[in-house]
Amino acid sequence: MSGATRFTKLAADAVRDALRNRIGLLAILFALAIGVFADRCTGIEGGSFVVNGRLYDVSDGARLVGPLLYGLCALTLVWVAGLVACDSLARPLSEGTASLVLSRPVGRRAYALARLAGALAISVGAGASVLLAVAFLLQARFGLDLAPALVALGVFAVDAWVVAAVAMTLSLWLPRLVALAAVTIGLQLVVAANLFYTVAESSGGMLSAIERFGPPLATSLVLALSPWFSDGAVAGDWLEPALRLGVWGIGATALLVAIFGREEIAA
Amino acid sequence: MIALELAGVSKRYGTRRALDRVDLAFPTGAAVGLLGPNGAGKTTVLRLLLGFARPTLGSVRLRGRNPFDPASREGLGYLPERLRLPARTTLRAFLELHGGLAGLSGAELARGVDAILDRTALRDREGEQLGSLSKGLAQRAGFAQALLGDPELLLLDEPTSGLDPLGVRDARDWIHAARGPRHTLVVCSHVLTEVERVCDHVVILSGGRVAASGPVESVVAGGESLEDAFVRIVRGAA
How far apart are CA B130 and CA B136, in angstroms? Predict the structure, then answer.
């Protein structure tokens, strides 16, 4: 049997495992709830409102609401990817079911990558479906182009990969809930840094360091969605954030494989 | 051909010494009983053979390969002492996964799973979730996955744990059937009468060291049972 066939079997088992153990179902339900939330947020009928004596049409706000809503949904779904990944490898190791699989001709690298792929299949699959639905809602109700949303969908998948790989690595060291808390806090810090320095100049300190060296999770989404912004204010350089995101994805995955390769497995 | 070999192997867990300069080598076709009191290092030997842990010193070879090479585990069946089965998986799905990972596919996989279900008397349980099985039935399920695909190297850690007397007798038959000139067997057990029945070589570990090793008849003195020899050797090594 080829390594690719074994990998596919292991990844499919990781998907089934996540669904059987409810974490996958929870992720799917969470994604659906986000879809409902997006539907409610975009369900405003046409009309106008007055701010400081100036008259605005509801459609004027769409250019700001669209990217905000889509970005918020995408980042929440990235967090869900971390949640699923925290469980996907750590649970079979702690429960002891991994040892039977690893007694087969299955390499550590293949096992870790298959668990990551299985976790991502669920979280990115559910997330992409919801984001696509949100994109169509924004197009139908606010008249926003689909193209930026589709680019952001790809960015979401890469963001989810980075966060899932980091979460899975952390789950090898930390109890799952602590790992999840670390991923949650880390994600919030990265997003805060990314968004703050999207509108402000870098001024040193922790947030600045995170923005400079951390994974540009929110920056990349903002760049992808920038054609939606009415004034085109955010149109930065694509190459550096894209490269940094790729380096983070590859680096986090390589770290996961390296650490799992050294892990001692209980018999 | 040497099926499994430990050369000068020591293993430490922090400050605790689990194995101390262990040398073992067994040819293909041997049926080895790995014996020792609790904490003697039996399970550590299995973990090293399976590539679950690295030796602190020395080298381990499984059919000439490093156990961290996945190819070293081609044709290997393993039954752990603390068997943990995926609770929400059906027995058949579990066996199909392990049969697939063992290299079976298509009709061969279906036939292999059917045959092992019949052999372990679990056919009427194939649709049940593993979490719903009793301890004895779960142990049978563990045996079924270990024996799938006619493994050439079978590592069994306390294989009769949780089995009733009928199950113990069945397990003995399965182990006997799994032996052959191309098949190597390693059994870790505290049930010395079972080891005496199914193994031709024994290794007695005590305090992480090999206290005795060789064919059963060379370890057991005239008129002694294996249990008597075990007690004599372990007390002598202490």
Answer: 12
Inform me whether the C-beta atom of residue A212 falls under 8 Å from chain B C-beta atoms: no
Instruction: Give the mean pLDDT of B208-223.
Output: 90
**Which one has a higher pLDDT value, B151 or A47?**
B151
Q: How many domains does chain A have?
A: 1
Condensed to tens digits (0 to 9), the pLDDT of residues A140-171 reads 888 888 999 999 999 999 999 999 999 999 99
B101 and B119 part of one domain? yes
Interface-testing mutation among A8, A13, A25, A104, with chain B (most B C-beta atoms within 10 A): A104
CA distance A256 to chain B (A): 17
Cβ within 8 Å, pair A101-B86: no
Which of A87, A99, A103 is the mutation pick for testing B, counting most B CBs within 10 A? A103
- Based on the number of CB atoms within 10 Å of its own CB, is A98 exposed (0-12), middle (13-18) or buried (19 or more)? buried
In Å, how far are A43, B42, B158 from B189, measured between CA atoms?
A: 68, 9, 5
> Do both B40 and B71 map to the same domain?
yes
**Residue span of the structural domain in which B112 resides:** 83-151
Domain interval for residue A105: 3-262
Instruction: Tokens 């994974």: give the residue.
Output: A215
Residues A209-239 pLDDT 10s: 888 899 999 999 999 998 887 555 455 578 8
Interface contact flag, B52 A104, Cβ < 8 Å: no
Report residue A5 CA to chain centroid gap. Answer: 27
Tally of structural domains, chain B: 2
Task: Give the range among A46-55, A171-180, A256-265 with minimum mean pLDDT.
Answer: A46-55
State the smallest CA–CA distance between residue B217 and chain A in angstroms. 30
Q: What are B57-70's pLDDT values in tens digits?
A: 999 999 999 999 99
Q: Are residues B136 and B27 in the same domain?
A: no
